[in-house]
Amino acid sequence: MSCTVVVGGFFGDEGKGKIISHLASAGPSPPSVVVRGGAGPNAGHTIHGADGKIYKVRMLPSGFLNRDASVMIGPGVVVDPGVLLDEVERFGAGGRAFVDGACGVIDSGHRGADSAGDLRERIGSTGSGTGPANASRAMRTLRLARDEGSLSGLVRDVPEAVNGALDGGEGVLVEGTQGTFLSLWHGTYPFVTSKDVTASAVCADVGIGPRRVDDVVVVFKSYVTRVGTGPLRGELGAGEAAARGWAEFGTVTGRPRRAAEFDFGLARRAVMLNSATQVAVTKLDVRFPGCAGATSYSDLTGEADAFVRGVEERLGVPATLLGTGPGAGDVIDRREG
Length: 337
Ligand code: IMP
Ligand code: MG
Known about the structure:
The chain has one domain (3-333): Adenylosuccinate Synthetase, subunit A, domain 1 (Adenylosuccinate Synthetase, Chain A, domain 1, 3-Layer(aba) Sandwich). The chain has eleven helices and 17 strands. The protein has helices spanning 16-25, 81-90, 108-115, 118-123, 130-138, 158-167, 199-206, 238-244, 264-274, 284-287, 302-315; strands at residues 3-8, 33-36, 45-48, 54-57, 70-73, 78-79, 97-100, 104-105, 155-156, 172-175, 215-221, 224-226, 248-249, 256-260, 278-282, 319-323, 331-333. The strands form four sheets. It has a ten-stranded mixed sheet with strand order 9-7-5-2-10-1-11-15-16-17, sandwiched between helices. A three-stranded antiparallel sheet has the order 12-14-13, with no helix packed on it. It is globular. The termini are close together.
């Protein structure tokens, strides 16, 4: 692995956290730096450790379980100091977790503006303050991490560190948040998050140029979910979603997620917008219970094999990573080498 970017292909909650955690630790040359782009603490990733513990992170990069890696947040991300410092401490990332001095800082005013009124009601925002903080940044009034005392021990030049690692031949894993169709530019506007979250934007967030990227992994779930308002083609009724086992609840807000069939039209567009070199398909076991816990492709059921082959044929990209359960080891990894 030299420089790999991971982003969501639908509306967030595709299971990126699990895939990133796997990529951060597995294979012959795990990355020495895991760096997070994306929006802010509106994201929620659930990660099951090899120890069986369940971690929920909103700010810390999802690759933090690789204790040999530094975890960093790029200047394009808005940071909630309380949330970040709590996660760094609780999840044992002290001394190897860094934020760029130019990260924007979310304060209680942003959280208040996000949890009451228009953004919450019309867009179904997460109430995390991310959108109002990005609005303040566009107005050039947002305070930055370099001026936030509580973050002083974590501040570092993240683009310098990331590009330096690549120059030294080390692996860098770049993680995005949300999903392609929550992008401010490419999503279902106005029912979107407050910035672009496609692979190009995530690279800009952490300060790497397009020529540095070797692989772009777009993560799809084997069905589609969406929290908050906005269009969802083929949306199932709550009863049907529950009957299929596709009823889920948001990590950040606890709201029920709406559900629909895998959408090949959206998936093809996500592959195009992100220039995917590979895709991941998660929660195969939810669709095809006979696949639960499989770690080798040959253990997939015929139905699941046909589904994965259909995805590869219709998207024109190899499906290299397949999620077969919530556990850290429930992954089929078909990457070469
Ligand atoms: P905001 O990003 O909090 O402003 O919310 C805008 C829209 O994006 C709402 O529909 C949210 O539910 C959705 N959203 C934001 N972040 C995530 C995420 O990480 N996963 C899923 N949906 C998200
Ligand atoms: Mg999530």
